Amino acid sequence: MQMETSFLKTDTTNLEKKLPFQTNGLGSFEPYSVWTAPTMVVTGVLRQGSMHSPGLTLTAFNDAVIPANSNLVFPTEVTIDVPFGHFGKIEAVDSLLQKHIVPFSQILESDYDEKIKVCLRNYSDVEFVVKKNDAISQIIFQRYVTPRILHTLK
Predict the structure, then answer these.
(1) What domains, with CATH codes, occur in the chain?
(2) Half-sphere exposure of 129 (CA within 13 A, CB side)
(3) Predicted confidence band of residue 92 (pLDDT cuts 50, 70, 90)
(4) Helix, strand, or coil here: 95?
């Protein structure tokens, strides 16, 4: 007997019933394996804030002023080769959120090959000065699975 899901095929003919503590809480599935981070090719300045930071920091390539209640696009001169099966998401950095500066969310897919630009929104009533090499956002990388689609008539 074959049991199949979109991500796993298991031969269930010789499976004996086991308690969850005997199978790492996963029933008849294999135990978790250690996930290792993939290698990523980067040009430009992309740095990790601290050892515990989930994202990599993008910095401004030049000085600029964001007028009050306005948007401004910042070049970073960074290109990345996002590993297949992953995507990068542009997110805010805490230091700018406290000053009401928020980046527009972006998704960087594995086929994205241009220099990254970040659009920042100034929600405050005063202009905001950004200096070259200031942190303007971060990229958080995540794994993904694209499900198979089953079309039905209903």
Answers:
(1) 1-33 (no CATH), 41-143 (2.70.40.10)
(2) 1
(3) very high
(4) helix
CB atoms within 10 A of CB 88: 23
96 sits in which H/E element? helix 94-97
Provide φ and ψ at 135, rounded to 5°.
Answer: -70, 125
CB 117 within 8 A of CB 75: yes
Beta bridge partners of 4: 9
CA distance 137 to 124: 17
Q: pTM of the predicted model, to two decimals? A: 0.70
pLDDT in tens, 15-52: 556 665 565 554 444 444 455 667 788 888 888 877 78
Q: Which residues contact 125 (CB under 8 A, 6 or more apart)?
A: 68, 69
